[in-house]
Amino acid sequence: MNDAFRLLQAPPTPADGSPRPARRLRTDHESVEEDLLKLVLTVVELLRQLIERQALRRVDAGDLTDDQEEELGATLMALHDALSDLCAEHGYTLQDLNLDLGPLGPLLPRED
Question: pLDDT tens digits, residue range 86-107?
Fold first, then answer.
C-alpha cells in the first residue's frame, strides 16, 4: 500500500511556482439547489447519450425489428426534448451541462 502512495504524483503547481489558493464553495441555499439541479441534469444527459449510443449499436447490428427501432427513436427524441425543456426552464442549455474535468477533458462528448 505504501508503494502505491509513493507512485502518486502531487498536483501540478502553476507556472509561476506560487501555490493557488483553495477554491471556496458557495454554500448559500440558492446556489446549492442550482448546482444540484445542474448535476442531476448532467447525469440524465450522460445517461441519455449512453443509451442512444447503445441503441445505435443495436440498430447497426440488426438486433431490433422495424417497430422497435421506431419506438426507440421516438422515445430518445422525447427524452431529448424533455431534457431541453427542463434546461430552458432553469436557464441552461444542453452545452452548459458538459462539465470540465480538467486534464481529462469534458465529461460529455461534443454532439456534431
Answer: 999 989 888 888 877 778 777 7
**Contact of 71 with 81, CB cutoff 8 Å:** no
d(C-alpha 58, C-alpha 64), whole Å: 7
The kind and range of the H/E element at 112 are none
Amino acid (1-letter code) at residue 48: R
Q: Is 32 left (phi over 0), alpha (psi -120 to 50) or beta?
A: alpha
Q: How many CB atoms lie within 10 A of CB 29?
A: 7
Instruction: Give 78: exposed, middle or buried? Use CB within 10 Å, 0-12, 13-18, 19+.
Output: exposed
DSSP E strands in 17-108: the ranges are none
Distance CA 53, CA 86 (A): 22
